[in-house]
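Case study: FCD domain-containing protein.
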Amino acid sequence: MARSTTLTEDAYRLLRRDILRGHWKPQEPLRMHQLSDRYGMGQSPLREALSRLQAERLVVLMPLRGFTVAPLTPVEMWDAINFRILLEAEALRLSIRDGDDAWESEIVAALHALVLQARRLEDSPSEADQDAFEARHHAFHHALIAGCKSPRMLEQFDRLYAECERYRIPNMAQGAKRDVQAEHRAIADATLARDFAKASALLAQHYRDTAVRVEAGFLRTA
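Here is what the predicted structure looks like once written out:
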């Protein structure tokens, strides 16, 4: 049982990573023989992983066609972004109200780690550096709202984060230059100052600015 669980977790982690990074393209069929060849495992853990990814809206089950990668559209993106803003604003409000010293310390540490890794990524944009940056980016945004003390909110945050990353990552280098780390610092500063109105406004603008850039990418390729 433990071995089966480990294989399923490995399949889920690897498939999820490849979908977020764009190895498997939107609406591309996910054929079992191709997945088995790439990940070196049987169909059972892969099917379980695909079912989990379907619940996260990263894959869809098509009648008579099996699993395919979920499509990317401006409508879907804005729906995810707007719901994410609503969810994280409330989680942020609760965190600012109830967060303790440990919560504040985690924000400071996560921001520092993210800024350091962003600098490394500029110097040596390797795949490993990109993976490290994405992990620290997630950790920072998670730290902001971790003080809400709601496992359901944090679970939904993870799902929405993954949905939005599929749009953000391929468009990171496009459009006008932004000082994203300055945006992160401003959000953290307002949060640590317990200024909910400012922190939530900055966070919402941070997400919307990314969505506008991604939407422009859709228009360029239309």
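For the exam, be able to explain this: The CA atoms of residues 55 and 190 lie 34 Å apart.
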